[in-house]
Design goal:
The protein is α/β, with parallel strands linked by helices and 128 residues long. The protein contains three helices and ten strands. The strands form four sheets. The protein has a four-stranded mixed beta sheet with strand order 5-6-7-8, with no helix packed on it. A two-stranded parallel ribbon has the order 1-9. It is globular.
Length: 128
């Protein structure tokens, strides 16, 4: 089980986004690591989005995402345009050491706990 205590938003020139492509600079990831160390936390997963209501992982997500045992990849629908989207409308996927597997609706509440109240958003990177 993992507990989500913080969310880090990446921005600035260290993030390159295009359809079917995302690149994050090593320097920006180093900043994320520094924040995690300062907060006595660690990276448990990533959140990204897809168009429409599709919340499965794409083939590109499966090939190019971080592939560490237990790592989570959460997919928000509608390009994450609605901040009030409940976690139950997102796809939660876990890398089990050999492949990605989508968590069943009943697994998420005991595999991923979001701390009570609002989880703080920490922005990393220069604003454009």
């Amino acid at each position: 089980m993992v507990t989500v205590t913080h969310v880090i938003g990446l921005r600035g020139p260290g993030v390159i986004r295009r359809p079917d492509f995302l690149s994050i600079s090593p320097e920006l990831l180093d900043d994320v690591t520094d924040i995690a160390i300062a907060k006595d936390a660690y990276l448990v997963g990533q959140v990204h989005s897809h168009p429409g209501s599709w919340v499965d992982l794409s083939d590109l997500d499966k090939r190019s995402g971080i592939r560490a045992p237990g790592y989570l990849s959460v997919v928000a629908p509608h390009f994450a345009s609605d901040p009030a989207t409940p976690p139950g409308r997102c796809g939660f996927h876990v890398f089990n050491g050999a492949r990605w597997r989508r968590l069943a609706w009943w697994e998420r509440p005991w595999r991923v706990v979001i701390t009570a109240g609002e989880v703080p958003l920490i922005l990393v990177g220069e604003s454009r």
